[in-house]
Structure formats: structure tokens, C-alpha cells
Amino acid sequence: MSRVSENSSVHSINYAVGKTKSKVEDLQLKGSTLKRVSKPSDDPVGNLEIMSIRSQNVDANQYLRNASFAQTHLSFTENILEEMTDLLVKAKELAVGQASNIYSPEIRQGVAKEIHQMRQQLVSLANKRMGNRYIFAGQKVLTRPFDADGKFSGDNNKIQIEINKDVFLPINLTGGEIFFSKEKRPVQREDLNLETPEQLLDMNLVRAPASTSPEMVHVSVFDEMRSLENALLTNNPEIIQGLLENLDTTIERVVAFRTEMGALTNTISNSENNIEKTRLINEAQKSKIEDADVAELMSNLQKEQNVLKATYKASANLMNTSLMDFLR
Question: Given CA atoms 251, 255, 258, 260 in this order, what sign does their dihedral have?
Fold first, then answer.
């Protein structure tokens, strides 16, 4: 005949009640959050996948912030290029009109003043800033890229921004590529408004030593506008006619860069759409792993509550039993 002490009964009752209460509390917590996995021990493998999805979502949020900044930067740049295009087209229209011999020197001097104002506007556009960052300074974003004469002080380095995992996109145009001709042209040194060969070399315009003959350099749009202004002031329609082709080339270059900005904008938009789609897929997968089945959860909670009530009742009956009950 086995003997059951009072202490043994109490410990058994406490263990049974505690175990059942723990299950009820766990189910109540899941019911309040509607989460099946609230701690790693609930589903170690599922929790690992949830953490991976959360990490991907954090990265996606940063990529979207990067894409938003890139969109703003490209839109700002495109607006500047549009203004440049309008100015250059207007300058060419004036040059075409003044290329014939039907206008007097006085009229050309008036047009020269307008060209001078356009050149000043181009310098202002070249020094545009978004916030405190110069748009066309390359990576020297805090350095004013052009002085009043059009001398370039920035660099030709691109600003790369990550818009998706391992996808980097250049979001800036440098002053060297947008305001200077791609091909070198023969220009006299005095036309460049520079003093020494060292200044030319500092601007990366020429590689050959200076000479008295015309130098092959990458001519800036400011020099073209200055040449047009000088030709108007000196009443020289032949030089004006010779500048028309250069103005056409400059306009085509600016339009080509506007097209490039549009292509980059489309790339960023596609990247944003892909990120959003990936986030939806991740959220759906995360919900499958993490979220609780409400019907099953409520059923289990009701079952455990009934078990707890039965445990309380059985415990009460056991604790009320005395030695006389066993002797009967």
C-alpha cells in the first residue's frame, strides 16, 4: 500500500495548476496580439525566417529613401537642363538672325547685351544648389563649380546611390561633361580668358604645351556665348555663322543629357515598384509564419480554460479530503 503525503499532494496540485495556467496565459497573450510566434521558442525555424524578412524590409525602406532622394535630385537637374535648353535655343535664334548682313552694328550691339545676360544666366544655372549641395560640382558638392568667367573648379566624379541591393546609380551630371564640348576644338588662348598653360592643365582642357597657334581644347558653353557676344560687338557676321554649328552641337548635348536623366528616372521608378512588390510578398510570407489562426486559437483557449477549471475543482476536492475519509 502506497502512502501519499500532504506535501506530495500540494506539489502535484501546484504543478498541474501552474502548467495549465501557463498554457492559458500563453494563449491569452497570443489572442491579444493575434501572433502565433511571439518569442523564438514558439517556432525557432519560423522565427529565423521572420527575422530575415524584417531585415529585408529595413533595407527596402532605406532603398526607398535613397530612391526618393535620387528622384528629387534628377528632377531638379532636369529642370535646370530644360532652362539651359531654352536659353541656348534662344541664343541660336538670335545668332541665326544676326548671321546675315542686313542688320546694322547698333542692332548687333543691342543683341550682344542680350547674349551677355544669357551667358550670366547660364553661369547662374551652372552654380545651382539643391539645399547646400552644388548640382554640377561632381563630388565636390560644397565647392562652387564655376566662377564668373566660367572656369570649372569641381571634379568629374559621379555620385553613386544604391537604389536596390547591389544596384548603384549615378544621379549627377558634372560640370565638365555638361558645359564643355566632347570634342576638342581649335581656340586661341586669348579667347579662353586664361593667362598661363598651368591654368589650362588645371582644368584638364589640354595636354599639349602652349603655343602661338590655336590650341585644341574642350570649349565651354560660356566661351561660345562670349565668342558670340564679341562677334556681335565687332559686327562680324562670318564669325556668327561659324558659331551656329557649335551652338547646335551644344544644344544636342544638353538634350542628350536630358534624355539620360529621363532614363535614370524611369530606372528608379521601376526599382521602387520592384521593392514594393517584394515587400508585399515578404509581408504575406511573414503573416503566414507569424500570425495566429484565430479560430484555432480561440478553440484552444476555451479548451485550456476548461482544463484549468477542472484542475481547480479536482484540486479543491483533493485538498478537502481528510484522514477520516481514507479510513471509512
Answer: negative
Query: Residue 239 in contact with residue 227, Cβ under 8 Å?
Result: yes
User: From CA 150, how far away is CA 229, in angstroms rounded?
Assistant: 15
Residue 237 CA, chain-centre distance (Å), reads 48
pTM: 0.70
Q: Do residues 221 and 250 lie in contact, with contact meaning Cβ atoms separated by under 8 Å?
A: yes
One digit per residue, the tens of pLDDT, for the chain of length 328 reads 445 555 666 666 666 666 666 666 665 566 555 566 666 666 777 777 878 888 888 999 999 999 999 999 999 999 999 999 999 999 999 999 888 888 888 898 999 999 999 999 999 999 999 989 999 999 999 999 999 888 999 899 999 999 988 889 999 999 999 999 887 766 655 454 443 333 333 433 333 344 456 677 778 899 999 999 999 999 888 899 989 999 999 999 999 999 999 999 999 999 999 999 988 888 888 777 776 555 665 666 666 666 666 666 666 665 555 555 545 5
Q: Which residues of 45-71 are buried (b: 16+ CB within 10 A; e: fewer)?
A: ebbebbeebeebbeebeebbebbeebb
The CA distance from 152 to 126, in Å, is 10
Give the homologous superfamily in CATH for domain 63-183+218-282: f41 fragment of flagellin, N-terminal domain (1.20.1330.10)
Show Cβ contacts of residue 243 under 8 Å, excluding neighbours closer than 6 positions.
95, 224, 227, 228, 231
Q: Cα(292)–Cα(37) distance, rounded to whole angstroms?
A: 8
Three cell numbers written together for 159: 555620385
From start to end of the chain, where are the E strands? 129-130, 133-134, 160-164, 167-170, 185-187, 215-217
Residue owning grid cell 536659353: 87
Query: Are 284 and 276 a contacting pair, CB within 8 Å?
Result: no
Produce one character per residue of 119-154: b if its CB has 16 or more CB atoms within 10 Å, e if not: beebbebbbbeeeeebbbbbebbeeebbeeebbbbb
Asked if residues 220 and 203 have their Cβ atoms less than 8 Å apart, the reply is no
Summary count for the chain: helices (H), strands (E): 9, 6
